Write the structure tokens for this entry.
Amino acid sequence: MQFVRRSIQALVVLVLVAIPFLYLYNVERYARQNFSYSLAGKQISDTEWFQRQILDYIDGALAKTENPDKIISAISGSPWSINILGYNISDPLAAVTLTIAGGNFYWPFLLSILPLVILSALLGRVFCGWLCPFHFLAEISNKLRRLFTKFGLKPHDIHLKRKTKFIILGALAGFSFVAGVSIFPHIYPPAVISREVFNSIFYGTVGFGFFFIIFLLFTELTLSERWWCRYACPGGAIYALLGSVRILRMVRIEDRCTLCVECDDACPFGLLPMSDKTGMECDNCGLCKKVCPEAALEYRFMTYRGEKKLIAEHSSNRKKKTRQVRGA
Amino acid sequence: MDRRDFIQKTIGAVIAIAGGGALGSALLKLLKEPDKKTMSENRPYAYYVSGPLRPPGAGPEELFLKKCIQCFLCAEVCPPKAIRFVSAGGGLKSTTPYIFPRERACILCMKCTEICPTSALAPLIEDDIYKGKKKVDMGTAVIDKRMCITHLGIGKCESCYTICPLKERAIIQEAMLRPKVLDDGCVGCGLCEEVCPVKDKAIRVRPPGDTLKNPSMETQFPAIFYPGATL
């Protein structure tokens, strides 16, 4: 399970890095074809050594195919807004910022967010745990953090209220409306990371967002684990709202549970699966299931109401047990 | 509270306040409207009075800013790599696409308008650009007769006329092969500016809202976080 998740995350990062190289090759192709026509011909001499190697590799691979243009234009973009075979898939936050800051309903774009909306309405915040490139980097940072703790260094562990992210979402949406400019792409980590990767490969420069991501990863290491995702991310807020109606839920089987708190420690989002408090934030990453020594956590298809019923059952059972213990 | 604890907490508070202040001032600097009086030639951040030159198919500046979600799809598919992004010095306009035709001009392939998911870049009129109506309105080229080689009578250049994809509609040759731009036909792709052999460019593209016709009045945003970025 974790292997599958890691593979998907790595694939996303790989695609994120590969697409700019593919289009850098596209630029060079154009420059070669129109060398005398445009001054773009100087592009060919502008590449770095390692870029040269990769572009030569792409050149060799595409030389054998019949229609390179078709292959190049098959995929473009980033998790913020990706275009696959002419179909666009975008982040729900992009639709929010377009609708609020732009003040217009552009139906083709609103339709393009449907895949992610349906996915998170069925499975919860899966975008965060399975696809988001920032989450991937944060997990590496998190490994380092756990290593620190092993060697006796104790990083801070700051907790805020979970609804802070909804306030941030609302405040920034209001700001976008007043300013008439999309403000989310400047601070939403998947958008920022993909832009900086693109900038660094395509133009050879990095922007302000690069320092923003470094800042986030550093605070991730020192201040609080996954604080951005838990308390601040506006995209995470939308996914959490959609995830409240999810069908796939992590459910505790009471008979097997020994109340060892391993799962609560393992959860990167700081949720409490042992106390049945996963709420709408769970991204179904399966880390709690992995660490559970008794295999007491399982995926179940269950509605919101079903889970509520189960939790009520659990608490009544617990009360019964305590009564029995006291009676004995 | 003992003395050691007190000192530690004080130092922590000072560091926190200093860090917060630095971050806040940096943010304010980003949000502040850039100084429009500074002027420098031949820098990729040259701005015009009404804002940067947007890629083809962009509407009015305000509407474009509202629609753009800064997904950089347009820059990715641009074959000549003409589209670039406003640096962090651009304040709220930062990371929006623009074209600096002096370095690399638009070739009117219209791939960016095809890929743009939010219709921030959309062709104005559905018609072939080579037949009649205006499909794109990025700006208009303006010739500075004080610098143009042909206008000065030093030589016969014809570069702008030769490269123009809309010959006889956007640019014509008058007596003595002097180029003349027709405002109704020019779409502002900037190929003429790119090839102009004069060092400071005798022909320049200005955005549609730009009423100032004097090419020497170009303004510029300070390049803070993309120093020395060239293609």
Q: What stands out?
A: Chain A touches chain B through 53 residues (CB under 8 Å). The radius of gyration of chain A is 23 Å. Chain A has a mean pLDDT of 86. The first strand of chain A starts at residue 75 and ends at 78.
